[in-house]
Amino acid sequence: MTSIESVTLEVTDPTAADRFYTDAFGLGSQIRLRASKAPTTGFRGFTLSLVVSQPADVDALVDAAVDAGATTLKPAAKSLWGYGGVVQAPDGTIWQIASSSKKNTGPATRRIDEIVLLLGVVDVAATKRFYVDHGLAVGKSFGSKYVEFATGSGPVKLALYKRRALAKVAGVSPDGTGSHRLTIDSDAAPFTDPDGFAWTTASETASL
Q: 2 in a domain, yes or no?
């Protein structure tokens, strides 16, 4: 089963980005950073989600991110599916921080249960077929709207959503061009998907 070991974000200032992610989220090797000035404008076509157990944890991470320099795109609030908010890191990456629970069960922590890479794609059904052909197994599928893959023991999960719908969830315009500024590091052979997201082997990324 194909698994995702990490994602590499291309940023203009890796030192500043590393400081932000350490202060805001306490992320380790699941998020790697690489210097790049690849041109990009507007929405980059993906979000990263931090899934936590309760609303207080959402608030703790959102507050930490804002204190570290993030911009609030959507304030944390209750919704039909739970509780969550959206922030944009100083490097431009959009982060959703969410819990399926609407009630707190204990003191706030900054414990992260899951990291989910959500790709905004033009054709969910076609991209799903592409990924299945490249060794990924479907975990959940809701027609042509949303797909979640079973990525084994890897620390990062993968899901697909329509690009315009994902931008709406993130609170930004769906318009954007240029580089995604993202590389997906896995145990699969290198490839590029129909929407231009590049996969590379985790060993190659670690050697950069």
A: no
Amino acid at 146: Y
Kindly state whether residue 80 falls inside one of the protein's structural domains: yes
Number of domains in the chain: 1
Domain CATH code at residue 31: 3.10.180.10
Which residue, 5, 171, 13, 204, is CA-closest to 79? 171
Q: Which domain holds residue 44?
A: 9-182
Strand ranges inside 66-121, DSSP E: 71-78, 83-88, 94-99, 114-121
Residue 98: phi and psi, rounded to 5, are -145, 155
pLDDT digit string, tens, across residues 28-54? 789 999 999 999 999 999 999 999 999
Q: What is the mean pLDDT of the chain?
A: 93
As given in the structure block, the two tokens for residue 126 are: 């076609």
**Domain-located, residue 191:** no
* pLDDT band (50, 70, 90) for residue 151: confident
197 located within any domain = no
Q: Which residues are paired to 156 by β-bridges?
A: 4, 115
Residue 203 scores a pLDDT above 90: no
Q: What is the pLDDT of residues 72-101, one digit of tens each?
A: 999 999 998 899 999 999 999 999 999 999
Output the CA angle 196-199-201, nearest 5 degrees.
165
Contacts of 121 (CB under 8 A, 6+ apart): 45, 127, 160, 161, 162, 163, 193, 194, 195
